[in-house]
Specification:
Blueprint: E1 11-13, H1 30-34, E2 50-56, E3 62-68, H2 70-74, E4 78-82, E5 93-94, E6 101-102, E7 108-109, E8 115-121, H3 124-132, E9 135-140, H4 147-151, E10 175-183, H5 186-192, E11 195-203, E12 215-220, E13 226-230, H6 235-246, E14 253-257, H7 273-283, E15 287-290, H8 293-299, E16 306-314, E17 320-330, H9 338-347, E18 357-365, H10 380-398, H11 402-409, H12 429-438, E19 448-449, E20 452-453, E21 471-484, E22 493-503, E23 506-512, H13 522-534, E24 538-541, H14 559-586, H15 592-595, E25 598-601, E26 604-607, E27 612-615, H16 616-620, E28 625-632, E29 651-664, E30 669-680, H17 687-706, E31 740-743, H18 760-777, E32 783-784, H19 788-792
Parallel strand pairs: 2-15, 11-32, 13-14, 17-18, 23-24, 30-31
Antiparallel strand pairs: 1-24, 2-8, 3-7, 3-9, 4-8, 5-6, 10-18, 11-16, 12-13, 12-15, 16-17, 19-20, 21-29, 22-23, 22-28, 25-26, 26-27, 29-30
Helix pairs in contact: 6-7, 9-10, 10-18, 11-12, 13-14, 17-18
Protein name: Oxidoreductase
GO molecular function, one term: iron ion binding
């Protein structure tokens, strides 16, 4: 392994045990990142490495007539060119749940940008130029681009020979998965309603837009295996998919997490992992692959675009009577996480409200559009956009305040969801709305200064398009519900290895998990947990790799709950082992060793009354305690395929937003002035990180409200804007003030009472912004993102 940069290195965070849970300890990688010293996966280097490049399809749906690689192979500096025919085993597909994604296209391509061939060369530009010399002849096929073309009787089948376990219960082969939820009698309830509102909503395709592109380094091993250093969200899931394609046992595919520059769901699927390994094993040399931004847009899945039709009814006093809805998600060419996204969209489609009678259907389509899968919010985002628009429509029709209407119908602990599951932990929906409404509003005409208008605070900003004329303020509210953790019967567990020993004359705990640190701050929290449970100052976080058991994915707001729970559980068992050592060594010296409740605190063994019995250095002298244990949360169950009934989720999280916007009605420009949030977090293990996660999720919700959308040409199914020049994300100039009110109502079923927090603020921020724009303009606005032409009618 000489010459390989292993990143990140061991992260050791000193301090006192006051830096345990509940403290805003700083991230050990924070300073390195803001100073540009942190090593990301794109910084990996080996002195004799080659560079890999992926050639992608230029059309969205076509038969591959022929591939000619001769010119590419003849180019100086090229070591290998691989196509489907060069794959080493009969396993040629992969996938998170359904193995329908080809490693390299064979016979046909199903979307624009699908990988077709690989090149390894001694320089990245040489690899690119060689790939450009590969000649591919395509015979284009009819496209499937929307619901109508996907479900027509004579629709082309995106996958002709399906045999996955969802296929038996879908009404059309171009439907990946279907989940109905039926409870009560929605038709009868509709007849009792005094008012009924309907709406059809469109949610655009959002990109995760992480700043660190897909990248990694594969190094062939002397034993015929391979070492892969990569930025990912789930090491063991990658391993499960990679090893069969390579024809290797899993223990010969050794994976180490490298520095990850953001993820948000986009690294849950494979990108360059198998490609780099194939090239390394073929050439016998290390191979590095780094996507540029154009490639990155094609190298990962996106958020599902959706069309949603909703009908709600209410009595004249404001109580909801029923919900009928149909949600159609476009999953693109391959399944990815679509089945689970469908389950989330269906089960959370009612929102955080009490509705007894529902008729819900959610489906995901196969199409020739770009593949879609996991992204922060995971199906609940699209639903929240629709049901919150419906709440505003109902409130307006009833002449009620929109916040009070929501509070009147808000769920609480003990509410049964449309799936029949009881919410068995705090659900402070009404309280969150009260808190966010009570926050002070930003001043009117905040752009006015003694020297004139500050255009930075106006719609259009520094483009100087207005000095306040035609600018109207709007205020909007929204609240959402998001599940935490993997659902529907998935065996959601994590593993933690904890070692406690004396190093340099003081007790040190080492925590080793396979958790992917993608920016969420898990390495900080794990150290805090170890300090709290083991009473030590020094905690070392071992690099994440596959030499320890799976930690599951860094997604679904689950890592602090599940891997944090695993670290807590293992630390507790280590603590007991340490106390057993102490009892054997010193038990005869003091009766409290046998009679008192003992804790580890400040590097000592202490009774619950505060009496010191021994130093941990003395207890651990000449010994080490080392345990690796799995930990699981409560089991869930699959939703019934006919009725949708079932205890599908382990926990729920809630957030509410108030948006304040200024709209230039003449030009259709929007400036979001403030996005206030109130969120229940159960227990803030690191309050600073909690606020950062809430503000980050809020900003991503802002992005899809007013600017972010991958544009796919409906005639060609080609992506029109695969760059940060044309795909816009919020910058610091677009991001408003985000005041946060953190509520801590413990969930007794979760470690420390915590609640997963990362996704909930992404839900309600988008509809709050849309509600504020509607409030300012009086327009209905049933799609996202809102563009100037939607406001001006041009």
């Amino acid at each position: 392994m000489t010459g390989v940069t292993r990143t990140p290195t061991h992260l050791t965070q000193g301090g006192t045990t006051d830096a345990g849970i509940g403290a805003s300890t700083l991230r050990p990688d924070g300073t390195l990142k803001v100073t540009g010293e942190f090593a990301y996966s794109s910084d990996l280097w080996h002195e004799d490495m080659l560079w890999g490049f992926t050639l992608r399809s230029t059309v969205a749906h076509a038969e591959i007539v022929s591939i000619d690689t001769s010119e590419a192979l003849a180019q100086s500096g090229v070591y290998a060119v691989l196509t489907y025919d060069d794959l080493p085993t009969d396993v040629k597909n992969y996938g998170l749940e359904i193995q329908d994604t080809p490693v390299l296209a064979h016979g046909k391509v199903r979307h624009h940008g699908e990988p077709v061939a690989l090149v390894a060369a001694d320089h990245p530009e040489t690899a690119r130029r060689a790939a450009a010399k590969i000649r591919i002849e395509y015979a284009e096929l009819p496209l499937v681009t929307d619901e109508a073309s996907a479900l027509a009787e004579d629709a082309p089948l995106v996958h002709e020979h399906r045999d996955d376990h969802h296929f038996g219960h879908v009404p059309h082969p171009n439907i990946v998965h279907r989940q109905p939820i039926v409870r009560g009698d929605a038709e009868a309830a509709a007849r009792r309603a005094d008012v009924i509102v309907t709406g059809e909503y469109v949610f655009g395709m959002q990109d995760q837009a992480f700043l660190g592109p897909e990248s990694g380094l594969a190094v062939p091993g002397e034993d015929g295996g391979v070492d892969l250093y990569v930025a990912t969200q789930w090491l063991h899931s990658d391993l499960r998919q990679i090893a069969p394609v390579l024809g290797l046992p899993e223990d010969k595919v050794r994976m180490t997490l490298s520095g990850v520059g953001g993820a948000f769901g986009g690294r849950e699927d494979l990108s360059m992992q198998i490609h780099a390994c194939l090239l390394a094993l073929r050439t016998g040399k290390p191979v590095k692959i780094v996507y540029n931004r154009f490639e990155s847009f094609f190298g990962h899945v996106h958020r599902h675009p959706a069309k949603l039709r909703y009908e709600h009814g209410a009595t004249k006093d404001g109580k909801l009577t029923h919900l009928k809805c149909r949600i159609v998600l476009d999953g693109g060419a391959y399944a990815s996480a679509s089945p689970a996204v469908v389950g989330n969209a269906a089960s959370l489609s009612v929102g955080p409200y009490v509705v007894e009678d529902v008729d819900i259907e959610a489906i995901a389509l196969y199409s020739n559009n770009p593949p879609c899968g996991a992204m922060r919010g995971f199906g609940a985002v699209q639903a929240c956009f629709a049901y919150e628009a419906q709440m505003d429509k109902l409130a307006k029709k009833l002449g009620m305040d929109p916040v009070e209407f929501r509070q009147l119908n808000a769920m609480e602990q003990g509410t049964r969801l449309p799936t029949g599951q009881e919410v068995d932990s705090p659900a402070p929906v009404a309280e969150l709305l009260r808190r966010v409404k009570a926050m002070p509003l930003p001043p009117e005409h905040q752009w006015v200064t003694t020297e004139g208008a500050d255009v930075r605070a106006l719609p259009g900003g520094l483009s100087n398009t207005t000095h306040g004329e035609d600018v109207v303020r709007g205020i909007g509210y929204a609240v959402g519900i998001k599940n935490v953790g993997f659902s529907e019967g998935f065996d959601d567990y994590s593993t933690a290895r904890v070692r406690m020993e004396v190093v340099g004359g003081e007790p040190v705990a080492t925590v080793h998990t396979a958790m992917a640190e993608v920016g969420q701050g898990g390495v900080t929290v794990h150290a805090q947990i170890a300090r709290t449970e083991l009473g030590v100052e020094q905690v070392t976080i071992h690099p994440a790799d596959t030499q320890v058991g799976s930690a599951g994915s860094t997604s679904a707001s689950r890592q602090t709950y599940v891997t944090g729970g695993a670290v807590k559980n293992t630390c507790e068992h280590v603590r007991e082992k340490v106390l057993e050592l102490g009892r054997r060594k010193f038990g005869t010296h003091h009766p409290a060793w046998a009679t008192a409740e003992l804790v580890l605190e400040g590097g000592k063994v202490v009774t619950d009354g505060g009496e010191v019995l021994a130093d941990l250095v003395d207890v651990l002298e000449g010994a080490a305690v080392d345990l690796e244990l799995e930990w699981r949360h409560r089991p869930t169950e699959a939703f019934d395929l006919r009725t949708g009934q079932g205890n599908g989720h382990v926990q729920y999280s809630f957030a509410a937003h108030r948006a304040v916007v200024e709209v230039d009605t003449g030009l259709g420009l929007v400036k979001v002035i403030e996005l206030a949030c109130a969120q229940d977090v159960g227990k803030a293990l690191n309050p600073l990180s909690v606020v950062g996660q809430i503000q980050g999720g809020t900003t991503q919700g802002l992005g899809v409200a007013v600017m972010e959308e991958i544009i796919v040409d409906p005639k060609t199914a080609k992506v029109r804007n695969p760059s940060f020049t044309d795909y816009l994300i919020p910058t610091i100039l677009d991001t408003p003030t985000i005041p946060v009110d953190v509520l801590e109502l413990a969930d007794e079923h979760a470690p420390y009472g915590l609640r997963g927090i990362g996704e909930a603020p992404t839900l309600s921020s988008t509809p709050a912004v849309l509600a504020a724009i509607r409030n300012a303009t009086g327009l209905e606005l049933n799609r996202t993102p809102v563009r100037p032409e939607h406001l001006t009618g041009t």
